[in-house]
Amino acid sequence: MKISLNWLSEYIELDDYRKNLGELSRILTAAGLEVEEMVSPAIHWNHVVVGELLEVGKHPDADKLTLCQVNVGHEKPLQIVCGAKNHKAGDKVAVAQVGAVLKGDFKIKASQIRGVDSFGMLCSTDELGLSEGSEGILILNKDLKIGTPLSEVKEYSDVVFELNVTPNRADCLSHIGLARELSTLLNRKVKMPSAELKETKVNIDDQIHVELKDEESCPRYCGRMIKGVKVQVSPDWLKNRIESIGLKSINNVVDVTNYVLFEYGQPLHAFDLKKIKKQTLKIEKAKDAETFTTLDGTVIQLSNQDLVICDGEKPVALAGVVGGLDSGVSVETVDLFIESAFFKSEGVRRTSRAHGIETDSCYRFARGVDPEQTLNALNRATALIQSCAGGEVQKGYVDLYPHPLQRKNIMISTGQVSERLGFTVKASEFKSWMERLGCRVQMSGDQFEITPPSFRWDINIKEDLIEEFARLNGYDSLSENLPELSQEPSRHDSMYLFTRRVTKTLTGLGLKQALNYAFIGRLDHNQVWQNSQGSSFFGLSGGERAIELLNPISDELSVMRESLLPSLLKNLVFNERHGHHNGRLFEIAPVSLQKDKKFLQENRLAFVFWGQNATLWNKEKKNFVVFELKSVVEALLTSLGGKNWRWQQNEVVKNCPPGFHPSQSASLFYEGKNIGLMGSLHPALKDQLKIRNEVAWCELNLDSLSIRQPRSPQFKSLAKFPFVERDLAFMAPQDLAADQILTEIKKGAGPLLTEIKVFDLYQDKELEALGRKSIAFRLRFQSEKETLNDESVNQLRDKIVNSVCQKLGLEIR
Amino acid sequence: MEKLEKIKGEAEKAILMAPNSDDLYQVKVQFFGKTGSLSLLMKELGSLPKEERPEFGQKLNTVRVALDEIYLEQERKLKNQELNKKLETEKLDLSLPGPDVSLGATHPIPRVIDEIVDILSRIGFSVRSGPLIETDHYNFTALNIPENHPARDMQDTFYVEQGYVLRTHTSPVQIHTMENEKPPIRVLAPGGVFRNDSDASHSPNFHQIEALLIDKKVSMSDLKGTISFFIKEFFGPEIKTRFRPSFFPFTEPSAEVDCSCPLCKGEGCKMCSQTGWVEIGGSGLVHPEVLKQAGINPEEWQGFAFGFGIERMAIIKYGINDIRLFVENDVRFLRQFES
């Protein structure tokens, strides 16, 4: 909220801080009231002084300009050409002399205007930064001394603080409230404003009947009546105050209620008395489905939870939140009823939320106002209205406060304070701060019974008092101590450790880690997976339907992601558009799923590889990216001590999600369980997104992958006997998977075969025409018991060849 | 004898004349081999009269040793020459680039998280995790933020159906931990959090790390000491910690945590808005109401908690100037975290 230093200074002496505003700001911030910004128009007032107009004559060559002689305290007056009309000889004005640089880098230089020398400028409030737009120049107070720098004239050089008031400190949401806080911090007195009013002889009680029917929601209700006011423009002092804190001046009555709101922190409401039916006001809960039209014309439907002020017929105000259109103050208003009440915060907040109405009034009620100032604020407002708008104050006031609010006492000892703060606190020191805070203190040794002040709703338990003491005593005086370890540290979350291990392996393989929002657009998901409708895809769980945000930022960020791939696809497109034609990204994150009305999370690992890696030896070969990805996944599985896995291609062909190339995708089975899907990006999606490079991607279920982790390596004795290698090349049908041949070879070979690799795949036009390919394997044989001889290995080779050729119908080359 | 002298002369000449190590080897065969002239002379030794044998034998041996020396010297010389020639022909232009070796990179967010975990693990804190979608109870009520409390306005919440919310902070993990484990407790909860707020300096999905300690006696100075240790380890030994009073519903007393600006060392710069201090998180002693809600007796146990924004830490530590970079995954950005 905005605080005006001039306004604040009405209640507490702060002149000594005017030249050291930084210190004032530091004191407030150190007390928990963060000063976010300090704005002073006077910083642009170098060379701006008070001057007196000695002569105001006509410019010889221009009808619209005046030629002025201005006394600024020098021997000779300054000659200044001025375009305004509202000045006359004898006026005191703000003179920007040559050398001044006003706001917006407006430099004042000696110049000639229509052939006449001019040595400065007479300033308007706009040019001084005091208002937005203004007519004519600023005419200053007559009593000011000629030549005084304008920045030293208090009434014009205000400073406005932007104060960040935390929700617990409702007591600081006003100028008096802040003055009171400063009085505690600086040990100075607060001067409360006066409220002098002249009452008529007619008693208010004879003119209106106010009935408090819901004391629970409204413990105190006060009111006064003023008749015969003249609603008009506010006097300058009031207008300036209101505008200084960024509000708009409306009229004298509304401005006074706003003024007192920001002075006392007490929201007020002014009713047009003539619009109150049957001279009755009742504070009660609304009827269900009753309608109400607010000040700005919005029609809302009330519920029996909403507290309202009703006249003899219908609600005229939503208690503490907003007034009604029909009963508000207008230019025709002559008789007023001013309300000042204490509405309980919970109710005001509920009503404000239910109807989506936020006002300065409900902001304060929701945080808690001071029930002991209700009447004082009312009297202050009444007196101000009388002085600004005239009228007769009717005798007496309404004050319905059947059960004055009592604060509970808090028991605390300085031992407790010391223990929680970590240093020894003296009873006398504690007592002194508590008293300065406005608490009632009863002390017996180091035991205290403390009653918090009526304006501090946030102080209820001893911890609150400990904080108050620590805050006032200064957080800088807290010492630093490392707490002793009282037991063995516990284990880290296993998924955290596993994720870290996977990340280390993958970054070690040269991959970059990506990170994306947990929500995406529905279409982003569907273009990769379609609507999954609760089914699992290759070991990746699917939700029954996407989890929607009820208040998303945009359509693109509206559902929780069920897969990481849509986000990675966006990353790929973003990078390609920025000219990065190859990339190797992975992401590890949970996805959110909905099943049986429950929300579940599944941890996932996903990859996207695009473009040829520059080091790849085979630059022409297409589709190699998917093989590179396969190698990375297998390297990861190996690093995790994975025992066995296989890639299954056939099933995917039948049931391929739209993001994957049906002939270039395979699902992964890891230790008997399907854990995810890998493949090339579907060419249609690739074209649609104008992706230029080959793309392979993969998503794995990290929870399934993390079974029986961590596994530590199990040492096996190194082979004592040499190995023997044999190469086999088969002529095979083109669509026969290498894996099938491998499986057959392994079956035929038995335990002596320790390693097998595909080392050549050959196909020329001739072979292609025959629908065949040549595929070659390198087999390594080794025994743990003996050195194998050529003859026995050759026998084994022949056995393998026979069985493979027979079972698969292949020829050996 | 004469024959010996002659052979010696021939052999010497042949050794010194050999143009390369292969020819030199042929010379060796010619004179020292099984059928070489010196070997033949050796065989002749037997046919000499007995009294001449010792003298001739001695001589023969002297010649042999002398020739051997010459040979070895020549061999060394030739091999050296040949090696030098070979080295010359094998010259590589090492100004040419080698094949690309791709370095991997951990994203700065998990990188910062891991670094924080490593530091706080040393003083006994262990990682815990919790769900992104939380009930209103865990995200608010159990943290002393009842319904219709103004503190709810501090956080713009994303709502999902059935009264669930996307967690607005990592603090719900505090409650899960206190419900599931017995004190004393020292845990850390890193992870994603959500606020319905998106502009140049606010991300709707950012990351926090939360620390919770529950023990018999816990003071503000324990809290400040722990944070100060962490800050010195994370930003550098000269970086100072400052507490400012603040308000969080789940702690009392509460403190905003500032540290002296690691960029300018407190001199004042753009990062710290010329103040010399940067705000990095919130902290405080656990509110007794929070302990009660989680089933821990506040008369017996006390605690502290603190939380930092990970993006904020990364921005300060690495000097990152735009929060959007964290989720764009621009390769040029990620590459900067290869080191």
Describe this structure in words.
The complex is a heterodimer of chains A (813) and B (339). Chain A is built from 21 helices and 42 strands. Chain A is an alpha+beta fold. In chain A, the strands form eleven sheets. Chain A has a seven-stranded mixed β-sheet with strand order 30-33-34-38-37-36-35, with helices on both faces. In chain A, strands 3, 4, 5, 6, 11 and 12 form a six-stranded antiparallel β-sheet that branches. Chain A is elongated and about 130 Å long. The termini of chain A are far apart. Chain B has a seven-stranded mixed β-sheet, with helices on both faces. In chain B, helix 1 packs antiparallel against helix 2 and helix 5 packs across helix 10. Chain B is rod-shaped and about 130 Å long. The interface between A and B is large, with 90 and 87 residues.
How does the SSE layout of this entry go?
The complex is a heterodimer of chains A (813) and B (339).
Chain A: E1 2-4, H1 5-8, H2 21-30, E2 34-39, E3 48-59, E4 62-71, E5 78-82, E6 92-97, E7 101-102, E8 106-107, E9 111-113, E10 116-118, E11 120-122, E12 139-140, E13 160-164, H3 175-186, E14 199-203, E15 209-212, E16 220-227, H4 236-244, H5 252-264, E17 268-272, E18 280-285, E19 291-293, E20 299-301, E21 307-310, E22 315-318, E23 322-323, E24 335-342, H6 345-355, H7 360-367, H8 374-389, E25 392-395, E26 398-400, E27 410-413, H9 414-421, H10 427-436, E28 440-444, E29 447-451, H11 462-473, H12 494-508, E30 512-513, E31 519-520, H13 522-529, E32 559-560, H14 565-577, E33 583-595, E34 598-610, H15 624-639, E35 645-648, H16 650-654, E36 660-670, E37 673-681, H17 683-688, E38 695-701, H18 702-705, E39 724-733, H19 738-749, E40 753-762, H20 765-770, E41 772-781, H21 790-808, E42 811-812
Parallel strand pairs in A: 14-25, 15-18, 30-33
Antiparallel strand pairs in A: 1-13, 2-13, 3-4, 3-6, 4-5, 6-11, 6-12, 7-8, 9-10, 16-24, 16-25, 16-26, 17-24, 18-21, 19-20, 21-22, 22-23, 27-29, 28-29, 31-32, 33-34, 34-38, 35-36, 36-37, 37-38, 39-41, 39-42, 40-41
Chain B: H1 2-17, H2 21-32, H3 37-44, H4 53-89, H5 108-121, E1 126-127, E2 133-135, H6 136-139, E3 164-166, H7 172-180, E4 185-194, E5 205-215, H8 220-235, E6 241-245, E7 251-260, E8 277-286, H9 288-293, E9 302-309, H10 310-318, H11 325-328, H12 331-334
